Description:
The chain has one helix at about 270, and strands spanning about 1-5, 25-30, 35-40, 40-45, 50, 60-65, 75-85, 90-100, 105-115, 120-130, 130-140, 145-155, 160-165, 170, 190, 195-200, 210-215, 225-230, 240-250, 255-265, 280-285. It is mainly β. It has a five-stranded antiparallel beta sheet, with no helix packed on it. The chain has a four-stranded antiparallel beta sheet with strand order 6-7-8-9, with no helix packed on it. It has a four-stranded antiparallel beta sheet with strand order 15-16-17-18, with no helix packed on it.
Amino acid sequence: FWLFGDSFVDTVYPDRHRPFDAFIHNSIVTTTPAGSFKTFYGGTAQSPKPFFDTAAPMILWPNTAFTNAAQTKVYVLMVSVKVTGGGIFGFETTGNTVATLRLPDFKVQNRFTFSDTNTVNWSSAALTDSCYIYIYGVESTDNNKFMHVCRTAASNPFKLVEYYDGTNWLRRGNKSARIAKDLSEQYSVFKYQGKYYLLSQQSKFLSADIYLWDAAGPTGPFTNKRKIYTTPETGGNIITYNATAHPELIQDGKLLVGYCTNSVSGFDIWNNADYYRPYFIWVSNWQ
């Protein structure tokens, strides 16, 4: 179950250019072990709409998802965004929206506001561990990005949400504490063979370096920071960002990591489809 933000539903020609058409701001792709895939979006192929549609100037970017304990529903965490102007940074976040999808057909059951403030973007990552779902967010400042975490019961997500203040779990979201720094807007926290890991690109503005940390629990502390990869696409107009791990697809001990690419020049993404797409790598000896 793959979540995509900005998505083109059109042709890519042999020289890698595409028609100069508008794109939709979110879609879903499902894949199977046999190699088949299906794309979910609204509208038609000739006139596509986002799977999670909104009225302008608002858009939704889906960032992470999890299922309930019974695996009858998928909860998709999205950042609510207001378009404010031109260029790739012409937007501002306004909060977070959650959509509930029915399994196995992914029909949207409901959609609700989880946060109506941009203090913390509560859609950076999610981790299912025992009876809890841990939801990770990021607080952005001019010079850094900080991790925050809350949790909810896997049996009935969002009925009760508790926020970690560094020591205790509280009901008040404004009491959540900074528990890690130097992160990107999206990152991954996952558990593998009894140990917890944090994977992120560094918070230095659009850094090409991807790092991994260790922890004994879902709230850290996250230590043993080491660099596992530097994205080769970074340079000139091309930026990379929001690296994430896919531990459910580990093969022979190798960790699958994906990251985004984009161009700061508006026309590049139509002239070359490879400038605005995800890339994936297999990482060995990451533990």
